[in-house]
Design a protein that fits this description.
By secondary structure, the chain is of the alpha+beta class. The protein has ten helices and 16 strands. The chain has helices spanning about 1-20, 20-35, 40-60, 80-85, 145-155, 155-180, 210, 220-240, 250-260, 275-280, and strands at about 85, 95-105, 125-130, 135-145, 180, 185, 195-200, 245-250, 290, 305-310, 315-320, 325, 330-335, 335-345, 350, 355-360. Strands 7-16-10-8-9 form a five-stranded mixed β-sheet. Strands 4, 12, 13 and 14 form a four-stranded antiparallel β-sheet that branches. It is flat, with a radius of gyration of 30 Å. The N and C termini lie far apart (about 65 Å).
């Protein structure tokens, strides 16, 4: 029983340090003031609350072996903060919306004769855009029994719950930044309504990359390589060289073909399509500029693979996070503590539609 009481006392001390078990701690101090020892005080406080639950909980733990290592479910990586610029400073977290202006010039110069009085005027015009901010959040709860059982098994249960709650908020922002939210008026990175959509070229009746790999004389890898080069050059050409793509994003399907298919089946060129592409592209020269994102697995107009080329520049495209994740004080509910978390998200702002371009038809 001494070991049992000692364990309870340690759990209470840990909870008291975190400021989350005020009620039980107060009862323990009251018992101690009446002459009980520290461990007896803790035991008495808990015993008056839920002795039956504690006894059954610890008896169950005595009959099983708990591993100290925690095995987590596997979820896709959250990449949105590395894929696009994120603005999370200089924004008032109390704002319900934010506005930005886009300026353009108008007018042209012309040649004129001596003493001319009709010189053309040029000017600047601006357009205001407003994006709203939405709050999102969740929380977790933890009971006295869970705290004590976790302490006995030496498992960081509360930290695990807090981590998962924060990750759930981050995952919602990742999904919204990627695919948007029609109900809230957010457009996503992979389905911008103003982005130009290119389509993989048809060669000898073959359009998709899998089909092109059936072409003879190494025609498949050459055709796939040309799809990529033409797609990237299209942005450069459309913006008269002002905006050049410096990032390439694709699905695992596309990456697998590029990284495992050799340019030549006869051995004359054993480079993969990806290696050949990096050596020959004037825009994408290293793997640091290429990434995969599971949101592209079904992002095309036919719900299949989509490739995205874009110019990573916060002047053009940026996600707004007026308030990062905040953990609010624990709220007691009987012998359970509920801990709410929240954040604010302002969606994805695309100030220059021509800075992002899609390639469909590869699958």
């Amino acid at each position: 029983m001494n070991k049992y009481r000692q364990l309870i006392a340690q759990a209470l001390e840990l909870a008291a340090d975190r400021g989350e078990l005020e009620l039980l701690h107060a009862r323990a101090r009251q018992a101690q003031a009446q002459g009980a020892s520290r461990s007896d005080s803790a035991y008495s406080a808990l015993k008056t609350v839920r002795e039956d639950a504690l006894d059954s909980s610890f008896m169950a733990l005595q009959l099983q072996q708990l591993e100290a290592e925690i095995y987590r479910q596997v979820y896709p990586d959250l990449k949105w903060r590395t894929i696009m610029p994120v603005k999370n400073s200089g924004l008032n977290p109390g704002a319900e919306s934010f506005a930005w202006r886009k300026y353009d010039t108008f007018g042209v110069a012309k040649f004129f004769a001596n003493m001319a009085m009709d010189l053309p005027l040029v000017g600047i015009k601006g357009e205001k855009f407003v994006s709203k901010v939405e709050a999102l959040g969740d929380g977790y709860d933890i009971s006295v029994d869970e705290l004590l059982a976790a302490a006995m098994a030496n498992l960081p249960l509360e930290q695990e719950k807090a981590s998962f709650a924060a990750e759930a908020i981050e995952r919602l922002m990742d999904n919204t930044a990627a695919k948007g939210d029609t109900a809230l008026g957010f457009e996503g990175f992979v389905n911008q309504s103003t982005a130009v959509i290119d389509t993989a070229a048809t060669v000898s009746g073959q359009t998709t990359w899998a089909q092109k790999l059936t072409l003879t004389n190494n025609g498949g890898p050459i055709a796939i390589l040309k799809d990529l080069h033409d797609h990237l050059f299209a942005m450069d050409l459309a913006t008269y060289g002002k905006i050049k793509p410096n990032r390439l994003l694709m699905s695992q399907f596309a990456m697998n073909i590029l990284s495992t298919t050799q340019m030549s089946t006869a051995g004359s060129n054993n480079r993969t399509i990806l290696q050949q592409f990096l050596e020959s592209s004037p825009y994408i020269r290293s793997m640091e500029q290429i990434d995969t994102w599971f949101h592209l697995n079904n992002a095309s107009s036919t719900s299949l693979t989509r490739i995205v080329s874009y110019c990573y520049d916060r002047r053009y495209i940026e996600a707004y996070v007026p308030k990062e994740i905040e953990v609010l004080p624990a709220q007691p509910h009987g012998f359970t503590w509920k801990v709410p978390m929240w954040a604010k998200f302002g969606g994805l702002v695309n100030r220059m539609p021509m800075s992002i371009r899609y390639l469909d038809g590869v699958e």
